[in-house]
Amino acid sequence: MQDNFSVDKETITVNVSDNASLVYQFDLLKEENRKLAADRHIFDKFLDVSGNAYYCYNLESGVFHCVGDFAGMIGVDVKCVEDIPAIRDVIRDIDADDVMDIISISTGDGGNVVSKEFCLKSGRKWIEVSAFLISDDEGFPAEKYVCFRNITRLHIQKDELTYLAYYDNQTGLINRNYFIEQLNDNVEKAKQEHVPLHVALVDIDSFKRINDSLGLVYGDELIMLFGQYLSGFNNDRVNVGRFGTDVFVISVYDPGIETSVESIVREIRNRLKKPFVLSNKDEIYLSVTVGVAVFPDSAHTGLGVLQNAEICVYAAKDGERDKIHYFDTNMMKKFLEGFEVEKRLQDAIMMQNFVLFYQPQYNAATGKLRGCEALIRWKEHDGSYISPMKFIPLAEKSGGIIPIGQWVIRTAVAKLEEWRQKYNFNGVMSINISAIQLKKDNFVDDLLKFLRSADIDPENLEIEITESVLIERTSEIIEKVSRMRQFGLKIALDDFGTGFSSLSYLRSLPISTLKIDKSFIDTVISDDTTGIITESVVNMVRRLGLETIAEGVEEEDQMDFLKKISCDNIQGYLLGKPMEERDFEKCVLEAAV
Ligand code: C2E
Ligand code: CA
Ligand code: CA
């Protein structure tokens, strides 16, 4: 900017006698002034836009300059050195001395480039002040420049980020990470003071189902209400956090009678006797499962205690939900075993280490082979087999049942194709379908698509669905089963007699076959009532046009009875256990003779 002032004095002197030259010089000056004013205008605009304010102080001459809206920014006007102390009055205590150090360098010769943030007493504004020193040609301090910058917006953003990093914005509770941080601090404190610390994991029961029925918006609102309720337990000994979607965590430091986990959980359960009322006026009841682990008894670190509380909730889900479950080492043992089996099962799914066994079904009257039920086994490395009773429930929990179920369908259908080609086999292959498979959205579409490309008659494939699934009779399930039936597949109602068996509902179900459960057959001879019930079931089912299969027939007299009451088919150890493929092929060959 110095260049704009540089009107050459010598030129003016040399040409002073020359009038025209004087006019020329005057115009030149005018032009320079205009440029200067334009630059000054731009400079002022930049200053306005920046929102900053500056002052500078010449140490030698004492000349003080200030620019920018000091009054607007910090509430005091700074026009001269004497105004500077007034700044102190508007600054909050935080680092006020540091800030004054910076400001005071404009009047002293100490200090260098420094920068500090301070907050105004009104609390609404954050200012950053930076000061720097300019030295003269000999290196002596000559001028001080001080800049005030409004950084309130940055501070608000920082606060928001801090909130997001530490808090759950749905419930206002601290989040998982911050809870763990505080738990670790508390564990250290508890160690030094030799006091216990209890950690309770509070898991809302069946929240997924509740959420699905409410929809996401009201599901979120419910979580917010429950979280806000739990936050009421926060105090200097009790810390409440949100651990996951529907899992909350409470730590109680040095528990006393008033602030024990028991008393808190008792209070929560009492509260849950009343519903939460949503903004749409829906009243929702919740129940929770609570697992508690104690420091130092169960683990010596915060994370260890938390993990144990998690294992405890996991174990509690299969037990009594109403009580508080405390972690013990037995639980850990069981958990590790379950974990190990789950891992091995995952490997088995990857490697498809399964085989199908086939149990023959015979027509009771003619003795002709009706077909077989395909029953899966998990083949271990040592050649032994693991029963489906052991791993199917596990696979249903982990979701592994989906790939397992697909494998069963493909393997069974491939066998049907093969036997038809090889032995002209025209019998029925029954396969078991888990509720989890059936409830999957695309299950029926995928199955029918696959079957359209397979070389089998749909009547030769039977889908076994347990009574408990069909009895739910949700329109969705009925629709799915009807589509399979319409495609031509046989549908068997499995384990009839184990649930809330009611003959009246059979009429409305799209089924073709009824499998009478082994528990009936077991006492069909010894218990008259069972005999009578079985007979009337068979009669009624026949009238409905359905086929009957008696399962688990082990004795001759059971078979004789079933023949007498005209039960259509017999399946059981008496006529054949579930057997390997090549053994069943022998049954097929015998039947063909
Ligand atoms: P389920 O569908 O009721 O199958 C009949 C079970 O009874 C089979 O047990 C069979 O071996 C057994 N059984 C048949 N006749 C007799 C008998 O006379 N006496 C005795 N004591 N038992 C007999 P398994 O093979 O252990 O299968 C158990 C359950 O595992 C099956 O019960 C079924 O619910 C499930 N399962 C088997 N294979 C599959 C599959 O591929 N997918 C699904 N989702 N579940 C399967
Ligand atoms: Ca079955
Ligand atoms: Ca069965």
CATH architectural label of the largest domain: Alpha-Beta Barrel
Number of helices: 24
Percentage of residues in DSSP E strands: 15-25%
Structural class: alpha/beta
Rg, Cα atoms, Å: 42 Å
Instruction: Please report the distance between the alpha carbons of the first and last residues.
Output: 113 Å
Instruction: Report the mean per-residue pLDDT as an integer.
Output: 88
| CATH homologous group name of the largest domain | EAL domain
* Unique bound compounds: ligand C2E, calcium ion
Key features?
593 residues; alpha/beta; TIM Barrel; eight-stranded mixed beta barrel; 21 strands; binds ligand C2E; binds calcium ion
Describe, in plain words, how this protein is organized in 3D.
With 593 residues, this protein is an alpha/beta fold. The protein has three domains: 51-156, 2-Layer Sandwich (Beta-Lactamase), CATH 3.30.450; 167-327, Reverse transcriptase/Diguanylate cyclase domain (Alpha-Beta Plaits); 338-592, TIM Barrel, CATH 3.20.20.450. 48% of the residues lie in helices and 21% in strands. The protein is built from 24 helices and 21 strands. An eight-stranded mixed β-barrel has the order 13-14-16-17-18-19-20-21, surrounded by four helices. Strand 3 and strand 4 (126-135) form a beta hairpin. Mean pLDDT is 88; it is low at 1-7. Residues 494-495, 515, 517, 551 line the site of one calcium ion (CA).
Write a compact overview of the structure shown.
This protein is of the alpha/beta class.
